[in-house]
Amino acid sequence: xxxxxxxxxxxxxxxxxxxxxxxxVGGESPVCLQSMTSTYTHDIDATxxxxxxxxxxxxxxxxxxxxxxxxxxxxxxxxxxxxxxxIADVHFRYQRALEAVAAGAHKIRLNPGNIKDRRQVNEVxxxxxxxxxxxxxxxxxxxxxERQDRAVRASEQEQLARGRDHNLVQLMIRKLEEYIRIFExxxxxxxxxxxxxxxxxxxxxxxxxxxxxxxxxxxxGVTHAGPPETGRxxxxxxxxxxxxxxxxxxxxxxxxxxxxxxxxxxxxLL
Length: 270
Hints:
Blueprint: H1 6-11, E1 17-20, E2 23-26, E3 32-36, H2 44-57, E4 61-65, H3 69-81, E5 86-89, H4 94-103, E6 107-110, H5 118-131, E7 135-140, H6 141-144, H7 150-160, H8 164-185, E8 191-196, H9 200-213, E9 219-220, H10 228-244, E10 250-251, H11 259-269
Parallel strand pairs: 3-4, 3-10, 4-5, 5-6, 6-7, 7-8, 9-10
Antiparallel strand pairs: 1-2
């Protein structure tokens, strides 16, 4: 069951509703709590066992990584046994998204910085439309700042320093707008948006800006948040601020530890 906090629910910004399996996200629905498995997805027994523990702890939907064909091959059995909807996190190959859709995934996650070819994106959109499943478009700091050699990257970061937060946010917004245009040209509206950074200040500014530009549901999170000692603080600082402002329809608290603790902290926050 999704966790609803009275104050957050009363102030929530109105968004479209999409459904991840049987779990509604956005609209009038309560904030949805997510986590991600830390197993190799092709290890079916370990993955299902962890999903079962996450669900028992209060997780509403779960994301699994599918970088390889052997991972999408495992999805049908994982989905069959999972007590909660399963999201397929696609890395660099759009074929994994098509395979995940065919396997019955309840949602697909794409990173515009990794899958850029318009024809490939169009193909994924068509598959998801035919299957009736949503797509999360998730940008992050690492995918909007060009990954060049270390000297150039250091120079870029130095140039960003004075107006770093604002510049990164503008880059994220631009990337989202370019990508979402493809979805809108395909009349595909079952979309959830995310824009993550390790820096809570960037996360807060990014989601404030996105909430003014789009009415799609927003997934909140801080990426590469680190170990629990720092990850918990970074995540709570950003997510609590945004939720208190009525921004955010689904959340994940992320750090390098047993994901059960992510769910426990997320429940406490909500």
